[in-house]
């Protein structure tokens, strides 16, 4: 359980440097942010005894609602509260739950569930895309809005939201780049937009040469070697990122994902160029 002292540590520069390791997701960050704001209020009103006592009491009441579970790499914030079925009021035990086991009525999306939980995948970089696709097809057959056209308006609305969420989860986890970026996001880590100022100059030169070769290509035979080289680099990066993720070396994984972003862009340009030349 988060204590007042721990929250003060998070507010310090030392705490900020390690906040990515302490906070798993945006939900945790939002809760801690509210605590930090409250703690600042307590400090500013330290000379006002009544307000301070009220604020401390409120803080302790909120702390009772949240717990942290330590994993091998990070702290998870468990803010999930057991829900009851909106139709029959029976408890919903599964997370995420798509249907009530008692009345078989469709439930609203579980906002606390990760894409890995929705797609029933282990939270690892190397996942089975075959299993992912099977799960996707199964969920879409069950949740598609066409299946609920004769159901209650509430179920129709939930089916649209659930189906859209499954689509987003599937697209995100399907490709290595978007999957890796999502895993970083779960750790409150993000890649900067644009060119990385710390990128290897040799890498940037290689990318520039590949872009120039694509622009000058006049036939599919000119493009294929670039496409093959790009695929090989992406395969190497995928293996390196997987190894880094398994070891918990998130900063290394972030740097490798930055490189993967460049080569994924080249891969898209190769496809566009081949389409133009066909």
TrEMBL record:
The answer to whether keyword Oxidoreductase applies is: no
Q: Assembly state and interactors?
A: Homodimer. Interacts with ISCU (cytoplasmic form); this interaction stabilizes the (Fe-S) clusters on ISCU. Interacts with the CIA complex member CIAO1 (via LYR motif). Interacts with ISCU and HSPA9 to form an iron-sulfur transfer complex. Interacts with SDHAF1 (via the first LYR motif); the interaction recruits the iron-sulfur transfer complex composed of HSC20, HSPA9 and ISCU and mediates the incorporation of iron-sulfur clusters into SDHB which also interacts with HSC20. Interacts with the cytoplasmic form of ISCU and with CIA complex member CIAO1 (via LYR motif).
For this record, the Gene Ontology CC terms, alphabetical, are: mitochondrion
List each copy of the J domain by range: 114-186
Give the protein's function: Acts as a co-chaperone in iron-sulfur cluster assembly in mitochondria. Required for incorporation of iron-sulfur clusters into SDHB, the iron-sulfur protein subunit of succinate dehydrogenase that is involved in complex II of the mitochondrial electron transport chain. Recruited to SDHB by interaction with SDHAF1 which first binds SDHB and then recruits the iron-sulfur transfer complex formed by HSC20, HSPA9 and ISCU through direct binding to HSC20. Plays an essential role in hematopoiesis. Acts as a co-chaperone in iron-sulfur cluster assembly in the cytoplasm. Also mediates complex formation between components of the cytosolic iron-sulfur biogenesis pathway and the CIA targeting complex composed of CIAO1, DIPK1B/FAM69B and MMS19 by binding directly to the scaffold protein ISCU and to CIAO1. This facilitates iron-sulfur cluster insertion into a number of cytoplasmic and nuclear proteins including POLD1, ELP3, DPYD and PPAT.
Q: Which family does it belong to?
A: Belongs to the HscB family.
- Name of the protein in question: Iron-sulfur cluster co-chaperone protein HscB
Where is the protein found, in the record's own terms? Cytoplasm; Mitochondrion
The secretion signal range is none
Task: Tell me the route in metabolism or biology where this protein functions.
Answer: Cofactor biosynthesis; iron-sulfur cluster biosynthesis
Q: What is its main location?
A: cytoplasm
GO molecular function annotations of the record: ATPase activator activity; metal ion binding; protein-folding chaperone binding
Q: What keywords sit in the KW lines?
A: Chaperone, Cytoplasm, Metal-binding, Mitochondrion
Q: The organism sits in which domain of life?
A: Eukaryota
Question: Source species, please?
Answer: Osmerus mordax
Q: Name one Pfam family in it.
A: HSCB_C
> Its gene?
HSC20
A Gene Ontology biological process in which this protein takes part is: protein complex oligomerization
């Amino acid at each position: 359980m988060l204590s007042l002292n721990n929250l003060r540590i998070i507010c310090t520069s030392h705490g900020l440097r390690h906040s990515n390791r302490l906070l798993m997701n945006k939900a945790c960050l939002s809760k801690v942010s509210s605590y930090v704001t409250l703690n600042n209020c307590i400090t500013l009103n330290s000379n006002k005894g009544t307000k301070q006592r009220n604020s401390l009491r409120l803080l302790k009441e909120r702390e009772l609602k949240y717990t942290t579970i330590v994993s091998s790499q990070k702290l998870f914030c468990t803010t999930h509260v057991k829900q009851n079925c909106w139709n029959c009021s029976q408890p919903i035990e599964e997370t995420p739950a798509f249907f009530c086991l008692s009345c078989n009525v469709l439930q609203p999306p579980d906002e606390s569930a990760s894409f890995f939980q929705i797609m029933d995948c282990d939270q690892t970089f190397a996942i089975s895309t075959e299993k992912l696709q099977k799960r996707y097809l199964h969920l879409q057959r069950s949740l598609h809005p066409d299946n609920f056209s004769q159901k209650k308006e509430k179920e129709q609305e939930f089916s649209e939201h659930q189906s859209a969420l499954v689509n987003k989860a599937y697209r995100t986890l399907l490709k290595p780049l978007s999957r890796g970026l999502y895993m970083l996001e779960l750790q409150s880590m993000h890649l900067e937009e644009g060119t990385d100022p710390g990128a290897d100059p040799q890498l940037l030169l290689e990318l520039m040469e590949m872009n120039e070769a694509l622009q000058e290509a006049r036939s599919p035979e000119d493009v294929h070697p670039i496409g093959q080289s790009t695929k090989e680099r992406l395969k190497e990066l995928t293996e390196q990122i997987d190894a880094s993720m398994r070891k918990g070396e998130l900063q290394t994984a972030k740097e490798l994902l930055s490189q993967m972003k460049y080569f994924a862009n080249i891969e898209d340009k190769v496809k566009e160029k081949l389409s133009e030349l066909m």
